[in-house]
Write a structure and sequence with these properties.
261 residues; alpha/beta; Rossmann fold; seven-stranded parallel β-sheet; 42% helix
Length: 261
């Protein structure tokens, strides 16, 4: 039996975070690295990923960067080959990347819908299939999919009143599908001792958000605030580590109570 806090450590583990230089992704990468993992951050914008990796390496964290466009199957295969060639394994996969485009039901076009789904649906499936191959070979691993509260509940459009913000139709479809795909993957990959779980964060406060939106959002949230950097770090470490070794196929809302009422 391991000491409790040791269960949360990721020393010696190799983790990959797609979309790892984004709003939530950057905090996920930092959390994994601070817990002891060697972390690879990947996205289409390899320059941004490399700059972020350089920043964390200056803090003596083990972070690397690679390019990967989830809309291109060959990119995913090349990333898998690079990972296995450099590190010989993959222990943790965080599917955080998301493509954005299109508007609400009145404004989204079929072309926009298909474009984002190439990443958010097809890209997710390919990433899980191809990048789980090293995990299947080693018969261990943890996959964490980053969904959203809008994969769990319908949007309250009133919180956007008086702003230029909106809630895109494709987002609900992709994030809701991700949650149930997590359950499918958990069942399919269980014989390989690979756990698959999902985190569904709420909104993350960023600079420039309209004051009216912030007031409306916080009023609807039980804890009366939006998410901050440390709010995602604990849950992602929990699901990536041995602390959750008997948990698979689950979705955890990290939303300050938004979906509780």
């Amino acid at each position: 039996m391991s000491p409790a806090l040791d269960l949360f450590r990721l020393d010696g583990k190799v983790a990959l975070v797609t979309g790892g230089a984004g709003i939530y992704g950057s905090h996920i990468v930092r959390a994994l690295a601070e817990a002891g993992a060697t972390v690879v951050v990947a996205s289409r914008d390899v320059t941004k990923c490399q700059a972020f990796a350089d920043e964390l390496r200056r803090e003596d964290l083990a972070v690397d960067a690679q390019r990967c466009d989830l809309a291109a199957e060959n990119d995913i295969r090349e990333l898998r080959d690079w990972l296995t060639g450099r590190y010989g394994k993959l222990d943790v996969l965080i599917n955080n990347a998301v493509a954005r485009g299109g508007g609400d039901l009145h404004h989204v076009t079929a072309e926009q819908w298909e474009s984002v789904m190439k990443v958010n649906s097809t890209g997710l499936m390919l990433a899980c299939r191809i990048l789980s191959e090293p995990m299947q070979a080693q018969r261990s691993g943890s996959i964490v999919n980053i969904s959203s509260i809008y994969g769990m509940v319908g949007p309250d459009f009133s919180i956007y009143e008086g702003t230029s913000m909106m809630n895109p139709a494709d987002y609900a479809f992709a994030k809701g599908g991700m949650i149930n795909f997590t359950r499918y993957l958990a069942s399919f990959l269980a014989p390989f001792n690979i756990r698959v779980n999902c985190l569904s964060p709420g909104g993350f406060e960023t600079e420039g958000m309209p004051e009216s939106f912030l007031r409306n959002y916080k009023r609807k949230t039980l804890l009366r605030r939006m998410a901050e950097a440390d709010d995602i770090k604990g849950p992602v470490i929990f699901l990536a580590s041995e602390a959750s070794r008997y948990i698979t196929g689950q979705n955890i809302a990290v939303d300050g109570g938004w979906t509780a009422t």
